[in-house]
Structures are given as structure tokens and as C-alpha cells.
Amino acid sequence: MPLRERLILFTRYPEPGTTKTRLIPLLGPEGAAALQRRMTAHAMAAALPLTRTRGLELEICYEGGGARRMRDWLGDGAVYRRQGGGDIGRRMARAFRRALDQGCEAVVLVGSDIPGISAPLLASAFKRLRDDRVVMGPAADGGYYLIGLTRLGFKRAGGALFADMAWGASGVLAESCRRLEGLDLGVDLLEVLADVDRPEDLTVWERYAPR
User: Fold this and answer.
1) SS3 at position 170
2) What are phi and psi of 131, to 5 degrees?
3) CA–CA separation, 107 vs 1, rounded Å?
4) Is the pTM of this model over 0.85?
5) Which of 132, 133, 109, 121 is nearest to 57 (CA)?
6) Cβ of 96: how many Cβ atoms within 10 Å?
């Protein structure tokens, strides 16, 4: 019987003025929200094929809006749940714990503002995932855009990976790898990709944007 797998996409409802705020000075509130909308749709287009080829579950963890507005926007191909409170580490840990408590054996979590995301890359993350190895997608800014854990991996490393981390700093990936080494867990790294947070990142989106 195949493992029960879940892919979790973290995103935000594209409400003008509340999303991609660092891009508002350049794009304006409506433009920044439109970019958020397009990038999330791009990530969904990469994720949905895996629900067919791997039979995995797709969960959209969102902030802003509401479940009905999210479903009206992105369709019925996923389960929608709020991220909840706390910093990004607490929200990620909560999403992993819920998936594992619901019977999943392998879980991959990815952000929605990664222009280079693709179905083959997401499939590779699941294929590389093993109990003694964590899969991570290094971000160009020193963080990570994707993390994958098995049930045993989360049990061994969840506390170390998601607590007391300087989120947003350039050393998040390096510190995560250091902590995993201390737990005798290996890290399988995917390709380095850039996210889109600042005006200078827009050239990255332009290279990948659907025409």
C-alpha cells in the first residue's frame, strides 16, 4: 500500500494592502496583490499534477480571506486551512503535526512565492524523502522555500527545526542543517531557487511568469 503523502502550500489571500507589502511602493497595493494572485496560481499549477500522478493530498494553508474566498479563487482541488497564529516556525510545525496526526507518513511544505517551482521538483522532494533524511529547498537569500519530513523525521527533528530560529535572517538554512547534523539526520538539498519579496526580485518572476 503506498504511503499517504500530503503537500502543503503556504500562501495568503491577495487582498490589496495586506500582501507583498514590500512591493507596494513599486507596484501599488493592487499590483502587489495581483502578483501574489499570479504566483499562487503558478504554484498551484505545479502542485495539482501530483494529486493525480502520486495520489497525494493537497492542503492550502492560508492567511487572510476565508475558506470560501480561497476555494472560489483556487478551486476544489485542495483542502483549505488557516495557518493560525505565531511565527512562521510555529505555523509550519502546526501544519506538519496536523498532517501526521491525520495519518500522513510523508509531508512536504512549500511557499507560494517561488517562481521556479515545478511539478518535477515537488515530485523529486517526495522521492528523496526518507526517515533518516530531511529534504530542503535552499532559497537564494539563505533561507529555504521547501521542507519535507517523514513521520519519524518530524518526531526527531520537529522541535529543533521550528523553534528559536531567526526567521528571515540569511543563516536559516545553515542553522537548520547544523541542528539536523546534531541529531544525526542528513539533509537532501534540492536546487537553489529565489523567492519574490523585494523589488529587485521581480526579474526572477519575469523569467518564469506564464505568458
Assistant:
1) coil
2) -60, -35
3) 17
4) yes
5) 109
6) 25
Q: What is the DSSP letter of 193?
A: B
Beta bridge partners of residue 56, listed in sequence order: none
pLDDT digits (tens, 9 = 90+) for 139-184: 999 999 999 999 999 999 999 999 999 998 999 999 999 999 999 9
What is the DSSP annotation of 125-162?
HHHH-BTTEEEEEEBTTSSEEEEEEEHHHHHHHHHHHH
Order of strands, sheet of 106-111, starting from the edge strand that comes earlier in the sequence: 79-82, 57-63, 5-12, 106-111, 144-150, 133-138, 186-189
C-alpha distance from residue 134 to each of 12, 73, 108, 199 (Å): 26, 32, 10, 32
Cell numbers for 84, please give them: 493560525
CA-CA-CA-CA torsion sign (105, 108, 109, 112): negative
Tell me the C-alpha distance between 109 and 41, whole Å: 16
